Amino acid sequence: MIESEIENAVCERAQANGWLVRKFKYIGRRAAADRLFIRGGRVVFIEFKQKGKLPRPGQDREHLRLKAHGAEVHVIDNIEDGLEVLR
After folding, report:
1. What is the C-alpha separation between 87 and 82, in angstroms, rounded?
2. Three-class DSSP labels, the chain
3. How many CB atoms neighbour CB 86 within 10 A?
4. Domain range spanning residue 71?
5. Where is pLDDT greater, at 43 or 1?
6. What is the pLDDT of residue 1?
7. 23 forms bridges with which residues in the sheet?
8. 81: domain CATH number?
9. Domains: count for the chain
């Protein structure tokens, strides 16, 4: 399954379950997580990947920066894990 199929399925289900879902991009920077999910005060960043693929080094560094500031960041490579994170 390609990354966009995983991302689209998780986003559709999240929206149906009351999550605010936004595509996430930085202006003038790289390595932003793919999506931002917000519900009930919980803010979650998700980087979607094809099954078995890993984040690029710049993405890893950015995930660590976000986590160092208390952000919840996940790398997801299948629909089931994406839905579990947002349960």
Report:
1. 9
2. CCHHHHHHHHHHHHHHCCCEEEECCCCCCCCCCCEEEEECCEEEEEEECCCCCCCCHHHHHHHHHHHHCCCEEEEECCHHHHHHHCC
3. 21
4. 3-85
5. 43
6. 87
7. 35
8. 3.40.1350.10
9. 1
Q: Which tokens belong to 30? A: 């790289």
20-29-4 Cα angle (round to 5): 50
Buried b (16+ CB within 10 A) or exposed e, 34-44: bbbbeeeeeeb
What pLDDT, on the 0 to 100 scale, is given for residue 35?
Answer: 98
Task: Give residue 73's identity as a one-letter amino acid code.
Answer: V
Give the amino acid at 19.
W
Q: Considering Cα of 25, then 36, then 31, then 81, what sign does the dihedral take?
A: negative
Residue-wise pLDDT tens digits, 28-86: 999 999 999 999 999 999 999 999 999 999 999 999 999 999 999 999 999 999 999 99
Q: How many CB atoms lie within 10 A of CB 45?
A: 20
